[in-house]
């Protein structure tokens, strides 16, 4: 491609990305202003929203419910800190309204999510795929519905898209600097949702170790660089947590209570099999004799883990059924009509939102599977896109399944689906231009490398490159 073609193609790409991102913000704003302005804030959303306000007022990282109701100061680390910091910044500026903070979340998190997803698509298969990926992320309900909640899911999804982008950049052009950026992106994602730190094991480490053009010494060095950067960015928050609890707390203390909510009679039998119930941790804490008054969060977390493991051991024969229920729930195969009704109530969302999100999940998954097959046929790695799905399956296998747990990895689904959509577009265009070329519809010869058509700069992967 000539420099002129490259400049024109780049302008074409960014023009479309800007249009799509602008339209995404317009729609999300309409959605928030019409359907979410009366949002009743409770649960985790209450924690994020009120914690941000307390932080802005200099009250530090405490349990907002206990403080607001009784004035009691209880140290808390239920969630990673980044979204609380984000909301706290706007509260510090005096913008404390829930609707205003949702709009700001849409502008500074939801819009960048669409842009970064498009950039990741361009890195995977060129400019055309990037535009399709951005449009897919903007349209896909399981991405935009979370803009109408004060939850960290959009931030985690942005972190995931960032990891995917830089993982592919490293894969296509390995460098020590690229490894460092992957480590930074990993921490960014983990500061949105703690379980995304598992991407270090299922995505970052394998990609670095499989850099075929490098010696093993250089691969190990890059691995240490990525881990060192990630650890350095995590350390201030981890050190802060270690300084304020009786027992060690690292990234967050949410895992222990999440584990407890998913392992008791409420979630092993009946309608909520494989789901969660707050009755579980209350029961375990009663058994351990712990209350908010006689223990801190770290001590209660340790007790919850101990009691939960004991319960699992006593009911090990029921565990296979529970695991199947969790897997069926996360894939939308477990009584989906009832599930969306429950989640609409528990998350304070409109029923039509949850129904639309669930309804569009099935065709998107079908497209994503087709997209993964297409990338494999192009000898492109799918690890950065499939790895996040592995992380979610690990998470729900250990804890419980709800559609909210999928939210952080929906950009990976959108990117895989975009690959299939582009493939269908190429095939349809080929058939329309030459009706006799029906066979060409089924072929895949990496069309995303054409020059001068506004598409990508990338050439197909070399035959010798390892694939996932």
Question: In summary, what is this structure?
Answer:
With 468 residues, this protein is an all-alpha fold.
Would you mind describing this structure in some detail?
The structure is a single chain. The chain is mainly alpha-helical and 468 residues long. α5 (98-125) packs parallel to α8, α10 (199-209) packs antiparallel against α19 (383-398) and α19 crosses α20 (410-433). It has helices at residues 3-35, 43-56, 64-70, 82-92, 98-125, 127-139, 141-144, 153-172, 176-190, 199-209, 216-242, 254-261, 265-268, 279-288, 297-314, 319-330, 336-346, 351-377, 383-398, 410-433, 438-442. The chain starts with a helix and ends in a 26-residue tail after the last helix. The chain has two domains: 3-252 and 326-431, no CATH class; 254-325, no CATH class.
- Any idea what the shape is? globular
Q: What is the H-and-E element order?
A: HHHHHHHHHHHHHHHHHHHHH
Oligomer: single chain
Strand proportion = under 5%
Instruction: Report the average pLDDT across residues.
Output: 90
Helix content estimate: 55-70%
Count up the domains. 2
- Report low-confidence residues grouped into runs of 5 or more: 444-454, 459-468
Please give the count of helices. 21
Terminal Cα span: 29 Å
SS-based structural class?
mainly alpha
Instruction: Report the count of strand segments.
Output: 0
Please outline the major beta sheet.
Answer: none
* Radius of gyration, whole Å: 23 Å
